[in-house]
Amino acid sequence: SWNTGNIIDEQVALIREQVGDGQVICGLSGGVDSAVAAALVHKAVGDQLTCVFVDHGLLRAGEAEQVEKDYVQATGIRLKVVDAQERFLNALAGVTDPEQKRKIIGREFIRVFEQAARELDAERHVDFLVQGTLYPDVVESGGGTGTANIKSHHNVGGLPDDLKFTLVEPLRTLFKDEVRALGLALGLPEEIVWRHPFPGPGLAIRIIGAVDRERLDVLRAADLIAREELTSAGLDRDVWQFPVVLLADVRSVGVQGDGRTYGHPVVLRPVESGDAMTADWSRLPYDLIARISTRITNEVPDVNRVVLDVTSKPPGTIEWE
Ligand code: XMP
């Protein structure tokens, strides 16, 4: 029978056996899978593990801090933070095509992670790379294993030959709910353990139009309000994801304060789903939607309209890009 304590003991023993006294690297994305995988490996081999967090500046409000402060405090993990915000913004400047955004972000992510891995390897010869692969990922990809291939983004290739690490995948036999239970048992912050799925390219694919710092700040502010209100309504676990999308290239007329405004609409896209393959729009209470709308238009400069996406998947996708 399934028991959190047993799973942890079993995985810790397996990791120790695989890793021996080798050095291990793990990329943290801010999501639950990499966070739990790293925490398990840390429990097994302690400071033989070094985590790398590439801050691409496309996360939501407070998420980078949760990794850098709360997660490190809860686990005692050694973390190398790479501030790559400028680099990603420069690479994305003027780009509006969704697939182009994904390609650029995937490419830059690999380059930055590779550089960090090289530096660490020079310091303390690294043999192993931790990945938060879950059982459904294993089944989906035909069960193959062996070489390093960072899977945190779509359209991302593997690491170059001279950086061939052996994979450590302590979550390979587990489902998402089991991973969450392990995360809680390992003492990880609830905000990380219960985080909704979030796309690798982050807020870049929730800005319809080119990405820049100002637009990211506007979207972050609107997104934070939606999350705060969902949480205080006690409905976090009733939705699968709640993308908030900024229609940065669209303007609409409004009347606010002293007169006419010409601002941007924000789209609320709360969905229910089991596996993201199909989804339906969440029938959130109207008074919650109303609170979110009022707060966003009052508190977020440049936003004068909030709309609700009532499209299922198919035909719509969950994300707008
Ligand atoms: P769609 O929009 O295709 O999304 O219905 C299905 C699920 O995948 C997530 N998503 C991504 N995740 N990189 C990711 O890591 C991506 O480029 C990407 N695009 C979409 C989306 O958030 C949803 O959970």
In a few lines, what is going on in this structure?
The chain is an alpha/beta fold and 321 residues long.
Any descriptors?
alpha/beta, Rossmann fold, 17% strand, binds xanthosine-5'-monophosphate, 5-stranded parallel β-sheet, GMP Synthetase, Chain A, domain 3, 41% helix, 321 residues
Task: Outline the secondary-structure elements.
Elements: H1 4-19, E1 23-28, H2 32-45, E2 49-55, H3 63-75, E3 78-83, H4 85-92, H5 98-124, E4 126-130, H6 135-140, E5 166-168, H7 176-185, H8 190-193, H9 213-232, E6 244-246, E7 252-256, E8 259-268, E9 271-272, E10 280-281, H10 286-299, E11 303-308
The structure holds xanthosine-5'-monophosphate.
The side-by-side strand order for the widest beta sheet comes to 3-2-1-4-5
Shape: globular
CATH 2nd-level architecture of the largest domain: 3-Layer(aba) Sandwich
Q: What oligomerization state is this entry in?
A: single chain
Using only C-alpha atoms, the radius of gyration works out to 21 Å
Low-confidence parts = 144-157
Beta-strand percent range? 15-25%
| CATH overall fold name of the largest domain | Rossmann fold
The CATH class of the largest domain is: Alpha Beta
Order of helices and strands: HEHEHEHHEHEHHHEEEEEHE
Which ligands occur here?
Answer: xanthosine-5'-monophosphate
Query: Helix/strand/pairing class, anyone?
Result: alpha/beta
